Amino acid sequence: xxxxxxxxxxxxxxxxxxxEVAAQFERPVLLFSGGKDSITLVRLAQKxxxxxxxxxxxxxxxxxxxxxxxxxxxDKLVAELGLELIVRNVQDSIDQGKVREERGRYSxxxxxxxxxxxxxxxxxxxxxxxxxxxxxxxxxxxxxxVFSVRDDFGQWDxxxxxxxxxxxxxxxxxxxxNVRVFPISNWTELDVWEYIRTENIExxxxxxxxxxxxxxxxxxxxxxxxxVFREAHEEVTExxxxxxxxxxxxxxxxxxxxxxxxxxVVGEIRDSTISERGARIDDKRSEAAMETRKKVGYF
Amino acid sequence: MNNPNRKLIKIAxxxxxxxxxxxxxxxxxxxxNSLTTDKIEAxxxxxxxxxxxxxDFSLATDGLxxxxxxxxxxxVAHIYFNTDKTxxxxxxxxxxxEYTRNMVxxxxxxxxxxxxxxxxxxxxxxxxxxxxxxxxxxxSHVVVAINKMDLVGYExxxxxxxxxxxxxxxxxxxFHEDQLTFIPVSALxxxxxxxxxxxMPWYIGNTxxxxxxxxxxxxxxxxxxxxxxxxxxxxxKTEAFHDFRxxxxxxxxxxxxxxxxxxxxxSGNETTIKSIHFFDQEYLEAAAGSSITITLAxxxxxxxxxxxxxxxxxxRSEKLLSATVCQVNSKALKVGDKYILQHGVNRVLARxxxxxxxxxxxxxxxxxxxxxxxxxxxxxxFRLSKAIHADSYKSNKSNGSFILIDExxxxxxxxxxxx
Lengths: 299, 419
Description:
The structure holds 2 protein chains of 2 kinds. Chain A is an alpha/beta fold.
């Protein structure tokens, strides 16, 4: 028994949002990538509903190019917490001819996820998809709402967003519409890392420094393996690296690091001068990259 | 993380189109080392492409393609930065006359407002409107940043003239002198933002950043009566917690303790707080702002939208409601219109009985109107399908405000501040 509970305002806000999702929607789902943000969401959802179980399933849209460490971590977490996990594969969307694999030097399955995600929303009739996006990640995300209404095609209309006043959340939607929910909208990358450290939350091993076969292109460190396109002259070396974000192998760059503990990682983040999305190759394609992808239903 | 190391300050910004608001925010980010190398590189690249011979920090915040093309901010953007002591969230809201709704939206979640004035132009109609909204929303503290001082020769007279003009507005408001601070700045040159200006030795106060850092959230959060709206009923139905029936929600206004005698609204039944839970821990007391789960000593009927209050402190329960409404949607509000009224997490139906007046946001009074259009603010009387348990906005912000949802589109079309 403790005396006084003094809230962490960002945590209290996120819990409030998750409870609004459970109360306002019939079929919510938590989009789980195995990255630190969605792992943080799982912890917040535990806190929101304890001692009851998290009242919605997890959905992982698997590109087939995920780091094996992430998949192993996902399965362990789901088993430990007794959660329901739904996995849908981008490979199936490719096999069904719905999307075409990209070719060439920067080929990635990252943008192909959108089709698989929209099909899965349709399949399960999900009306709310909870995601771990944060407004500090990227300029276009800074204007994203906590409850972001998407039309039948999953599209985001940035000029026609519902204003969000105080902490009142309006999740009223029409049949066919769904809402993307971002409970940690107001967290920064440092907030997430500090929270993971304070709460002692387990995260996949690739967030810590490890030896990995990599090659350098455009000043970024890429994983060298069969999923990542590499020119013959691009030389593979073994380096001590860690990842700041955990996405598809084809679009997630590593950083050189010696940080093997959470304290060291948090220290590096605090001192770092390269923003998190700077390590996301897909955003570098053009200045308006993220906004363009969001308009067509990307998470 | 129940005792976060850094305090959290939420700020709304308001300024007219060319007052340099985005530049000010970009400068704050730059001076607090919050702009990362790749963002600075992106700004350098964009500035160069446009042929500027300086770094255009406004590019750090103007998010959407359409806005970049027009060169103006058209929606609320959220920006984050921190110093060693403080976490800041900035709701960057545009100052254009058409965008009252955005400033109301940004201000609704902020404790502090920065109102920007172009030193060359002084107090203009837009300034009136921005301050009117800060006053309407009862923002705890206003910083008046008099910008572009470099373009008026850093003259003290200019600063004093603007301060005097602004204080005439303050006299018409509910603000006290100690809720306002005037700072002369140049966002472009970084004068009095993070660095004390050598150009303005006559100014002896804090820089903008120093000032924002000495604000204490505890002084900025209103102390009111405890209100606990039930958001969700937690029933685990597991063996370990077979009989557990918890009421989950966010606590507003003040703290609640185990053993407090409480009244259940709307039934009026009384009981006591048996336990307060946060995740797998129990607490004797929870401070305002906590998202908690409460169990009660007696079996009482409580569901989402109901409310727990300390006995003897119940708010008004009423089906007739008078409120100041800001219309935030292009569909106008008219007498006879029906809306879904969301008060906290509770929803009832509301009918517009009367539009008393539209108030002029330049403090020049009010006029009788037939309807409230987008960005209009007016006094409206509603009749509700079911009583809500509300305080006046003056006495309790969270329990004194509501949103109006259109029954057809389900859009949020208005926000109300209860009289």
